[in-house]
Amino acid sequence: MTETEYRHPLMAAYWTRLDTRFAQVEAVFDDLVAEALAVLTPEGFAAYLEAGRVIGKLGRGVEPMLAFMEEWPSAAKAVGESALPSVMALIQRMQKSPNGRAIAPFLQTVASVAKRLQSQELLQDYLDVTLDFMERTTGSIHGHHTTFPSPGLPEFLAQAPALLHQLSLAGLKNWVEYGIRNYRTHPERQKDYFGLQSADARAVLQRERHGTLLADVERKLDLYLRGLWRDHDHLVPYSTAFDEIRKPVPYYDKLGIRVPDVYDDLVVAADTGGEPVRIRGLDRYRAVLAHIVGHRRWSEAQIADNWSPFQRMAVEFFEDCRIETLLIREYPGLGPLFLALHPKPSADACDPETTSCLRHRLAMLSRALLDPGHGYVDADLLDAVQRFHAVMAQGESSTQEMASLALSYVARTRRASDQFAKIHFADTVVDYRDDNRQLWKFIEEGDEEEAFDAQRKIEPGEEIRGLPPRHYPEWDYGSQTYRPDWVSVYEALHPAGNAADIDRLLAKHGALAKQLKKLLDLLKPQDKVRIRYQEEGSELDLDVAIRSLIDFKSGATPDPRINMSHRTSGRDIAVMLLLDLSESLNEKAPGSGQTILELSQEAVSLLAWAIEKLGDPFAIAGFHSNTRHDVRYLHVKGYGEHWNDEVKARLAAMEAGYSTRMGAAMRHAGHYLAARRADKKLMLVLTDGRPSDVDAHDERLLVEDARQAVKELEQDDIFTYCISLDARADEYVGDIFGRQYTVVDRVERLPEKLPALFMALTK
Asked: Can you give the pTM of this predicted structure?
């Protein structure tokens, strides 16, 4: 008998799901499964088998599949099994490019890399670096069709574990960037560089080696937390190299304590004027962890809704100093460390006549609260210091008492110049302190009575509802490359309002609806085609259902495909209506008493009614954005829904806000439209302005990205068409959509124009 026939029935079932004939995998399969079952959850194990099956079907031989089956359980243990989709996404990108031979070295080293990085966020940053490297060094003709693989990618992947034992992710990124910039067009030199064979590679590596890596001192810090502070939380590293706009700072949440992946040694001047003091990276980690532990032990979340940003900032400074005072009481040796890391602003460094000095005053106060020899002479500051120490002398005090001191100090020292846009930042950042996100809680709108006494803390990202984010690239026209996984799109079902509001809008345009109905009758296909053997459908297929019932009664497995559906023959169109819900829709339309948003609701209602009459499958979604980190995609109607009261209620509740990151929204809408089976796929984009966002300072950047998104959709056979309500749209809309656009100068005519335009496009 064969080995398969001897196998336990459960193992045999797993082997069947893996669906491979590689003898090398079969020989070690039972051992691989035993390890995976010990590490992965049932869901993670199912995903593991499915990923192994997919890799085995890539046509790359046994090595990638065997490497994955061996390496992934330990990688998942290090960074979490939820990282698997990102890993598989990179593998698919390699497979679709000429870089398929790099899949094996990638999978052979992914576990070592994951164990070194110890967090899913850092692994994602590593994958981003790898993808960027692959795309920028893969050869092309005229910059369009990839023709030969990246020469240095396999060597880089093979060296990645060794590199990460010497460099932080920021250092690795800089080392890779140097190699790409200098050897992008020299295949052999590129191989030598990324294989660490050239003197140049070793010199740059040595230059980027600096600081104390968290991975090297994590065991020491874990013992420090457990032994000194009786805290057992997990340390989760992050990198400061991948986000230039919002530099992350230490914080903690339910997943663990977040700290940078590397800290450089600091050299600070001595207070006494003697030799400068060097503070090791390890001691900087200890200061951060002590401060966070103090918050977890003594701080209480405060209601933040009625406090101004200035007041909250003052409370945070006072509370930080209370925590550190209590820490120093327990371990006096922390005092010199905190003072060495805490900046000491000069009293005359900020000019209150031209600059907002609020941060400067609070930083001086913070220093004075911790340093008896601070040397400041401001009367309000000295009074606040005296009050602080009087409160602390009575015991541990409380966050509420610090809040009272802070409010009093802000009231006495408030200046008109605190509102100036120019703010003094020098020597005001205390970088070993966390961001205090856990110090605040908020009353939810409409639930004041219940929420006021609720003992809860706001977790980061708690306000985001719906599905996990999808990440999309963004086109950088300056470098003619994609920024991989640059934009995060959060999708959710749009909240519902009153469906009767939409019925009133349709009744308002009753005369127009009658005219449209005559045109619809001419366009509407008359012949229907029945589609049988469907698990889900519009009606029951009685013949199949009866046969399935007979099979069930006789003990056989019944056929679940007992439904049927219909499609119209001669008109096979799928439509996506994508609505720009940015803040500008709240403006009044010229010559009309209605806002642009209200007119858009009327037009979309009529269009949806018309498409429903035609029988075309269609979906409606809206979008707006608040930086690349937060693009909201709201489902108003799905392809599987009819034009009913539930859909009308969502449309009635539409609100406008934030900005217009159009490219990301179009890519996400295209993700759904591309999955439809139709002869023609049409995406209608209704917008009133230029693509823009608060973090895109170059006004051409998002225009070019939207243009690139249109090109990508065309490659997927999706026809895009823009209806612009911006009178100045001719300046840019042609750059994005070519000739595929219409500008509606008189916005009040939109309800009339939009359905007619749709019928002209689809007749």
From this structure: 0.47
